[in-house]
Fold:
Amino acid sequence: MDKAIERFLDYVKIDTQSDESSSSVPSAAKELNLTKLLLEQVKAMGIPAYIDEFGILYGKLEGEEDSDPIGLNSHVDTASEESGKDVKPQYIENYDGKAIKLNDQYSLDPKEFPVLSAHIGEDLIVTSGDTLLGADDKAGVAIIMAALDYFVSHPEVKHHPICFCFTPDEEIGRGPDHFDAKKFGAKYAYTIDGGDPYEIAYETFNAAKVEVTILGKAIHPGEAKNKLVNACTCAFKFDRLLPATKRPEYTEGREGFNHLIGIEGNVAEAHMHYIIRNHDKKKLEEQKKEFQTAVKELEDRYPGCQVKIQIEDQYRNMKEVIDEHPEAVNTAVKAFNKLGLTPLFPPIRGGTDGATFSFKGCPTPNLGTGSYNHHGRYEFLSVKEFNLMIEIVKAIMTID
Ligand SMILES: [Zn+2]
Structure:
């Protein structure tokens, strides 16, 4: 087995699940178990690196002095949906296209996951059915380590200075909180934290959240006629006043959505929590107006009910930054073309740590890892695509 895959298999066996309920940084001390191992391995290659007070590993492999320093990032933590403890990866050679039995209870079946059919004849790494795999994002970590190893052991190959950092807490949305573009030192960078290796992603949502408070009028139901205003009923009505077609279950591609993520209340008072998303900033503003219109309509229709909304912006589409600094995408496209590949540019229906890096001064599109079905027991890695990603990263960094 090659060294890059061996490293990947070592990394997934280390439990690094982040912890949303914790306020410490990193959120779980065990995330550092992997970061510290990476520091040892990077130093063993002779590359200077350190872990800062926020648990971020920064390092730099020097390259051609007159060329732009290019950055790479992956996150060390795994998602909370499924355990990342005692991961026992299984190596499937020459996948035959049938359902893969993970354990007595669970199978990875192409009928349920058609993406598998694109990987017939490849070697795959799957879970034992009891945990997630953690290819998100330890495949990214292993790809970066393999690229560093290559340039260290091939000093004759000219390359850009490579700035790299490994971050904790991406899965709980705090990954980039303490990212420091100056410490990082890259002119632009790539997060290696996706699925499909043919994708270069640099469009994220613009995001906001809306908190709705509805005050009703509580009174004994026996004497309620023409007096009671039930805040819960008003809450249902409020949701119905928003366009149904903009619920996430009806949207895809570049269509934005309004997503009701929580509701609680009683007769006197109800609270609703929405997240709203759109790739287009103007359209997101229209969605905000729809909420304001719904407030007015609800108050008109139900005299006596009072509605308040609070709208707060969360993150912005990184395309804004990339449009100003297109070299990050151009360099990646050149690398793909050098390898005879044509990249795809799908809009991301979410945010990425790279979006925050971009607004912090380091334009950072996202690249794939060759892994799929993230955040659960059905996660798997295509060894062929993982190796292809190593070649893509090498091509990005190599100066001809
Ligand atoms: Zn990830």
